[in-house]
Fold this protein.
Amino acid sequence: MQQQDAIRPHYLYMKKLFQDGTILDAGPTLDEPGGVVILKAKDLESARALMEADPSVTQNMFVGEVHAWSPTFHAPEPLVADAAALKPGRTVQGNIVSSKHDPKAAITLPTSAAYAGADRWILRAYFDDIELHAFVDADKDRQVQRLYWVQFEAYLPSHPEYHHTYDSARHATLGGMDFFVDTWAEAMDSKDDPASDTAHLKALLAKQGYALPQSMISVRFVHLMDGGRKELMFIYSEPAPAGLTAADLKKGGKAYGQWPGIEKGLMERGRQSILLQ
């Protein structure tokens, strides 16, 4: 659907009607391609004329239906999807995440890893549908020693202008797919945007009683699909080497000279910790 010529004119048409005050609420359905528009019109024929003028309808991308609606109850705030209603679209059995789409793959993590759970939400700042699955190796005190983070993302059809971009020159091939690769060191007590994927991950781990080390080093593998509209991301993280902090390993830090050797081993351990089939 995203590759059809009508998608961009459709979005601009919807945006203009919203700015004019004609559209009250509009958005895509998440269970199948399509959408729902609630608009103000003087009568049914006027509403039908607005629908039939939509480029997605005139160019035969969508088939529309118009229904008269008389709301009994009215909320002053715009309608938003209930985050609790968004269920993960992938399944997990043991240490394997099975995905039937985007991409179709079985993602196997180490047998030692315990499944910490899943989360799915819409990042509304970018209209991005995000689904994450977290696995951990932890000690007896539930201190995380290794973190395995699998994430699927897809921009909503209502915003065709958004695309994921990565500028890393490093690449890896996993399961026959090309992945961008980058690394970093991070203090885990840093303040995160509450809507960010990192904040959602930390909340999920905390809910399960897991504690993260003060500093971690991470390698990220990202595979882009549909022209950057969708992505599969895998992050492997572990505690910073003993005696070192994230600040020590960053540019200007006292151990920055050690980082090339540290990240080389980190990338290899990350590659060895995931199998895509």
Observations:
- Residues 259-272 form the longest helix (14 residues).
